[in-house]
Write a structure and sequence with these properties.
The complex is a heterodimer of chains A (466) and B (592). Chain A has 3 domains: 82 residues, Elongation Factor Tu (Ef-tu), domain 3; 275 residues, Rossmann fold; 89 residues, no CATH class. Chain A is 32% helix and 21% strand. In chain A, helix 7 crosses helix 8. Chain A is elongated and about 80 Å long. Chain B is of the alpha+beta class and 592 residues long. Helix content of chain B is 35%, strand content 23%. In chain B, strands 8, 18, 19, 20, 21, 22, 23 and 24 form an 8-stranded mixed sheet that branches. Chain B is globular. Chain B starts with a strand and ends with a helix. Classes of the chains: A alpha/beta (466), B alpha+beta (592). Chains A and B meet through strand 5, strand 11, helix 7, helix 8 and helix 10 of A and strand 1, helix 1, helix 4, helix 6 and helix 11 of B. Strand 5 of chain A pairs antiparallel with strand 1 of chain B, so a sheet runs across the interface. The complex binds adenosine-5'-triphosphate and magnesium ion.
Amino acid sequence: MLQQSDRLLLSGKEYIGLDRIDGPLAFVAKTHPVGYREIVECVDSRGILRTGMVLDTSADTVVIQIFEGTSGMTMPGTRVRFLGKPLQLAVTEKMLGRVWNGLGKPIDGGPVLPGDAEHDVNGMPINPTAREYPRDFIQTGISVIDGMNTLIRGQKLPIFSGNGLPHNELAAQIARQAKIRGQAENFAVVFAAMGVKHDVARYFIRSFEETGVLENVALFLSLADDPSIERLVTPRSALTLAEFLAYEKNMHVLVIMTDMANYCESLREISTLRGEIPSRKGYPGYLYSDLAEIYERSGMIKGIKGSITQLPILSMPNDDISHPIPDLTGYITEGQIVFDREMHARGIYPPVAGLPSLSRLMKDGIGEGMTREDHPHLASQLFAAYSYVKDVRNLASVIGEEELTPLDHQYIEFGKKFEEQFVSQKTGEDRTIEQTLDRGWESLALLPAEELHRVTEEEIQKFYGK
Amino acid sequence: MPERIIGNIHRVNGPVIEARGITDALMLELVAVGKQRLIGEVIKLEKKQAVIQVYEDTTGLAPGDEIYGSGSLLSVELGPGMIGTIYDGIERPLEELFKASGNFIGKGVISTALNRKKLWHFRPSASAGSEIKSGMILGTVQETENFTHSILVPPDLSGKIIFLAKEGDYTVTDTIASLSQNGQEIPVSMLQKWPIRNPRPVAERLPLSIPLITGQRVIDTLFPIAKGGTVAIPGGFGTGKTMTQHAIAKWCDADIIVYIGCGERGNEMTDVLTEFPKLIDPRTGKSLMERTVLIANTSNMPVSAREASIYTGATIAEYFRDQGCHVAVMADSTSRWAEALRELSGRMEEMPAEEGFPAYLPTRIAEFYERAGYMQALCGKPGSVSIIGAVSPPGGDFSEPVTQHTKRFVRCFWGLDRQLANARHYPAISWLESYSEYLADITPWWEKNSGLEWSKLRSEIMDVLQREVRLQQVVKLVGPDALPDSQRFIIDVCSLFKNAFLQQNSYDNIDRFASADKQFKMLKIIVEYYRRGVQALKQGVTLIKLRKMKVYQDIIKMKFTVPNDDTAQIDKITVRLDRAFSELENIYAAAV
Ligand SMILES: Nc1ncnc2c1ncn2[C@@H]1O[C@H](COP(=O)(O)OP(=O)(O)OP(=O)(O)O)[C@@H](O)[C@H]1O
Ligand SMILES: [Mg+2]
């Protein structure tokens, strides 16, 4: 049997002809021993080069997933070369300001860059003992986020949205306004687009251009008309660059990935083709682990200045939050910003649903010395009061608003003010955290002080009705 | 058996490897695969073929690569040095992996679970020349300031003590005793190995009678768990499974905590690692880390090690139980473990049962929870393992297979409710869906410790909670004004009980943990308010007056204001409550 050393000699050996093509999968029989997840180059009879990855390897057959898709490939004429190494990305800081495809090849007409280093796009798990627990408050200037679902540097916080809702506007606004107060630091944005339309990519590019940060942005585009399999590697390429920038170049990297639902569709496509046993809605049983491999590539590492903050966007099929894609995402990420179609219809921007949205890392990043001492209790009080508003509104829809008790009326008024003055803001509006918190107290002023169980006596003295 | 080649790879499909040319592999044997020596386990044998599950990323493995057998089953090392350590799913210390491969976990890194160089101060307690049975105590090591580690005779050994080391410093592999068994002299060190998939033996199972006090009011007072019991916490994402488990791991009155992060977030383990050492155990005054063993196999770490991690955790817990300790095991989340089973089963092309899970899922769940119990350990002392397993049902729907099968094998159920979580009512444990079958077992303990009224107070408040549900249905149709004062008062009391008692803020320095005494007094004063209120209403006092009582605010805030070591403050509030009611009643009595 062959040893690893012999394999290296054989890597590069070329095979002519495929044995089977099935969707984006190509099968080659009787090869030398090929490594699992090894990278493959295929040149079809017209000389077009495609990249693939080994999904299954045995002494009899090798199964290759072709990222660019197989359309136009022929069985006999295709030449196949196994490269003896996993898929790698040549990374360099100079990738910022440029546009790449999902595999990291230039698509902006610019040159191929020699990388500082080659990194396996699959990454490696961060040792939990090496992680630094994230606790730095990022001011996005958006009240409903800063006040109630605070974003922390190194967090993974997805936006659960739906077709036609303004998730791109919100992501772009966050990218524009996000700052750590009192610090000017090395930052970069890595943007990964999977299966979205050209105008979405163009919207983001324009928004980056207008704020003059395009030089600090690397775009990895695998758009709707690109082969769907390429989407499987797009977020991995993007995160490989992000890890390099954060952990080797000490940059604070914001990674925006859209739309994760399209990524999951591609994964389902491959899984179905391979005849795997599906779990829910035809998605493979390993969807959770696969998404975790992506989302867990965020955070901070002890002794390293840089960080990776992830802002994945996903559209919930049918606005259903229990669909496997948002559901499994929610089980992995550190909270979620959930959009509400009904609020959007009422003209509220950003249409962030108050109750299902959550930031799990906010606890350590807010309060005295970080934002303001009243922040934790205020947020908790706003949640509690707003949740009661929802109950009262339900009741009012049954018995009629006039039948409500005087107290319940006060809650209705509070709910209105909260949505109109606190949640609502303009896409260009950048509020400081103090402005945000003050607006929170202004809404609470519509309720009697005895109702505010979650704030302390001193906080009421200092902030209530002021 | 020295390391030997047992066959080679035929096919690689993710973490599952088909091997051919198998010579003498053992079922469940620990193996090393390929040049990189990735750690794996033989999980199926058939003629000259085998299926091997690999505990590391298999990228680069290829057909023909050799497989080396270790001659032993996948086992964990047990002995001094585990406390305060964080391991991966197959008991490799993450600190050592960090030293070997840096910030990211590399492959093929071998590291022993217990430090071979460190010296431990051993004090013999058995006597040379005497007969000793398996599982009995040879001596002790003061492992941390608070924890005395008992060195046990391994469970498969017994006989006459031929040699027992003198008090002194030894490494875990030094011989500290030797026993003669069947005419053979067998050396014993402080390090034991035990195959993770086999439960360790005990003398006998004992009935459960003592609660595991968790410091969480909704749990201890409404849905208690007994020491040696099992409980499931199912809930959709973000409903509070991890927070509840962290809170229990911090404040419960167990001697040892084994926390298994099974397929969850890296940052959550980091959180434990940074927070626990700083927190002080109220019982011992020492850092909480000094009673904790962590096992971290996060969601992005290899899926087969995730499958192994809960057995690793259970075995470590049993080992401490065998020394006479009360151990609480947190497994977050058993659903990720079940999914690992599913993924491996799928890759082996086994016939699936429900939702792709293998047909043996219920058996495996049952086997895991069976490792809990209150036992007479072989050393003669009682010890217990309590298992608290989180369940992450897809879509938060409890009718899915993992929740349903788990429900069959646990006796306590803390169902987390999405609505409560969304309203930021934490812990979001639903009082309608949860139950505890341990109630009868542990009631005598509460009656003895707190007072005979405990179960009466508890059932009274449970009754109020049930009645409120029905009243709320009426309110939803006609509004609260349609109800008489006596019924609206029930709603008021419930709202008080939820705010003042059930909700508990893990981030508040006082509220995060309530002693049994504080819980009892809080329960009592709320029931007292209810009883007096009912009486007062009968005498004609109006609801408005009851609502405006100043003492109401004191009751609502007592969870934040009364520390565990000064519960007499609640007695003072009770006096004020009594006075306030008497005054009200006098006014009305005079008016009549
Ligand atoms: N007792 C509590 N006190 C205060 N906050 C809480 C409490 N329980 C839960 N929370 C809040 O809810 C959030 C989510 O809780 P947690 O991480 O435990 O959810 P989970 O059920 O483990 O979710 P997942 O399944 O996604 O891991 C926390 O970040 C915290 O903000
Ligand atoms: Mg959790």
